[in-house]
Design brief:
By secondary structure, this protein is α+β, with helices and mostly antiparallel strands. It is built from 10 helices and 20 strands. The chain has helices at 7-11, 17-28, 37-53, 128-146, 172-180, 228-240, 280-296, 320-336, 350-356, 384-399, and strands spanning 57-61, 66-69, 75-78, 83-88, 95-101, 116-117, 123-124, 155-161, 184-187, 197-201, 203-212, 216-217, 250-258, 264-265, 268-277, 304-313, 342-345, 361-362, 369-370, 378-379. Strands 1-4-8-5-9-18 form a 6-stranded mixed β-sheet, sandwiched between helices. The structure holds zinc ion (ZN).
C-alpha cells in the first residue's frame, strides 16, 4: 500500500489552503452558539450551499424534543437548531459517516466574535478549531473523494448537528440511526496542539437534583422552614462519598442555585453534577450509585429531591474496529509524512455516541489547533490541507480495497 497510487487525487487538495482559510474565517464570523438558533440557521444555509456544491443532497432534520431543569427547579422545554444531513451514493453497500457540529460554546453576546490571522499566521477566532475549520477539512476531503474514480462506490453521509457542545441531546437519535448504517465514522474535532489524536474517551453523564423544602421567614417562623440548601448540602456530601471508590470515575458538583434572600429559609435548591468514567462498568456503577444515594440519603425532615438526567456519552474504548481504524489512520499518516499518535482523554464528543451505536470511529480528524472553548482559540491554517489529505487517503484506501474495512463494534 502506498499513497503514490493516489498522488493525482491527493494533489487536487494542494493549493486549497487559502480557500479553506477564507471559508473558516467567514464561518467563524457567524455566531452559532448552541442557543443562537438564528446563527445556526445561517450556518445551516452556508453548509448546505457548500456540501451541495461538493455533490451531496441535503436534508434538514428537526431536533428531538428535550427538557432541562431551570435554576428555579422547573422543567423547561429546550429547542435546539436543526441538524444537517448530507448524503451521497445512498444506495452503496459500504458507507462512511462523517460528523461535525455547527454550534460553538460562544453565545450570541460573547465578546469573542471576530476572527483574525495573527502576524505569525495563526488563525484566531470562535470555532476556528472547534470546529468550523474541521467542517472545511471534511468538505474538501469529501469533495475530492466524490470526484475521484472511486467516488460512486462508497456511500458518504455527513451529519452536522447543532447541539454537540451541550451534549448532543437533541441529535443523539440521528447520530445513532446513521451510525448503525455505516462501516466507519470520521469525526472532525480538532487534533491536539501537537497533532496527537484522541484515542479512548471517557464517558459522561449530567445529573440535576431539584431539592425542595419549605419556605419560611427567617425571623418570624424559622422553625417551620425546611431548608432546601441544607438538604442539597447533605445530598452532595453523600454523593461525594462515591469519589475515589473507583479508579478514573469522578463526580463533580458543578453548579448550585438556591435561595432568594438571607432572611428567607430557601424552599428550592438545584444542584448540577457531571460524572466521568473511563470504563463502561465504572460509568454504569456511578450511574446506579447516584440513583441509590438519591433514594437512601437523609436530606432532613420534610425535604425531598428529584433526579433528572443520566449518562449521555457512553465510554469510547480503544478496541476492535476502532483500533483497526486507528492503525489505518496511522498508516495513511505515515504515507503522507504526518506523524500520527493518539492519547486517551477525559473529554468526550459525538465519537462516544457513534461507538455506542457500534461504529468504529476516529474523532479528531479536524484541524490542528488549541485553547478551544476559550477566547484564545486558535488553528494552524497550514494543517488544513494535510488533514484533508489524511481523510481522503483513508477513504481511498478503503474504497480501493487496499485496506480492509474495520469490523463494526457490534459485529
Ligand atoms: Zn467540537
Amino acid at each position: 500500500m502506498t499513497s503514490s497510487n493516489f498522488a493525482e487525487v491527493l494533489s487536487k487538495l494542494d493549493g486549497l489552503t487559502e480557500t479553506m482559510t477564507n471559508r473558516t474565517m467567514a464561518w467563524s464570523a457567524i455566531n452559532s452558539g448552541t442557543a443562537n438558533l438564528e446563527g445556526l440557521a445561517t450556518m445551516a444555509d452556508e453548509t448546505e450551499a457548500a456540501f451541495t456544491d461538493a455533490g451531496f443532497k441535503a436534508e434538514r432534520i428537526p431536533p428531538a424534543p428535550m427538557t432541562e431543569i431551570s435554576d428555579k427547579g422547573e422543567v423547561i422545554e429546550i429547542v435546539r437548531g436543526e441538524a444537517m444531513l448530507f448524503r451521497a451514493n445512498p444506495g452503496a453497500n459500504r458507507r462512511i459517516l462523517m460528523t461535525g457540529h455547527l454550534d460553538t460554546v460562544f453565545p450570541k453576546g460573547s465578546h469573542f466574535q471576530t476572527p483574525v490571522i495573527r502576524p505569525d499566521g495563526t488563525m484566531h477566532g470562535p470555532g476556528v478549531a472547534d470546529m468550523k475549520g474541521g467542517i472545511c477539512v471534511m468538505l474538501e476531503a469529501a469533495r475530492a473523494f466524490l470526484s475521484s474514480s472511486y467516488g460512486e462506490t462508497v456511500g458518504i453521509d455527513v451529519i452536522l448537528n447543532a447541539d454537540e457542545e451541550t451534549g448532543s441531546h437533541a441529535s443523539a437519535g440521528l447520530l445513532a440511526k446513521m451510525a448503525k448504517e455505516a462501516d466507519i465514522g470520521l469525526v472532525y474535532e480538532p487534533a491536539l496542539p501537537d497533532g496527537t489524536l484522541a484515542g479512548a474517551r471517557a464517558g459522561s453523564g449530567h445529573y440535576t437534583f431539584t431539592v425542595r423544602g419549605l419556605a419560611a421567614h427567617a425571623g418570624r417562623e424559622f422553625h417551620i422552614g425546611k431548608n432546601a440548601i441544607l438538604g442539597a448540602a447533605r445530598l452532595m456530601l453523600a454523593v461525594d462519598e462515591l469519589n475515589g471508590v473507583r479508579d478514573g470515575a469522578t463526580i463533580n458538583m458543578g453548579v448550585i442555585d438556591g435561595g432568594v434572600a438571607t432572611n428567607v429559609v430557601p424552599d428550592t435548591c438545584v444542584v448540577r453534577i457531571n460524572v466521568r468514567a473511563r470504563r463502561t462498568e465504572d460509568l454504569n456503577w456511578v450511574d446506579s450509585e447516584i440513583r441509590r444515594v438519591h433514594e437512601e440519603a437523609d436530606l432532613g425532615e420534610g425535604i425531598t429531591a428529584e433526579l433528572h438526567g443520566g449518562v449521555h456519552r457512553p465510554v469510547k474504548e480503544m478496541k476492535g474496529g476502532t483500533e483497526e481504524l486507528f492503525n489505518l489512520v496511522k498508516k495513511a499518516g505515515g504515507d503522507l509524512g504526518i506523524g500520527i499518535d493518539w492519547a486517551p482523554t477525559g473529554g468526550c464528543c459525538d465519537g462516544n455516541n457513534l461507538a455506542e451505536a457500534g461504529l468504529p470511529n476516529v474523532d479528531t480528524l479536524g484541524v490542528v489547533g488549541g485553547k478551544i472553548h476559550s477566547d484564545q482559540e486558535y488553528a494552524h491554517p497550514e494543517s488544513f490541507v494535510p488533514r484533508a489529505k489524511l481523510s481522503l487517503l483513508i477513504m481511498l484506501l478503503l474504497a480501493s480495497g487496499q485496506a480492509p474495512w474495520p469490523k463494526r463494534l457490534d459485529a
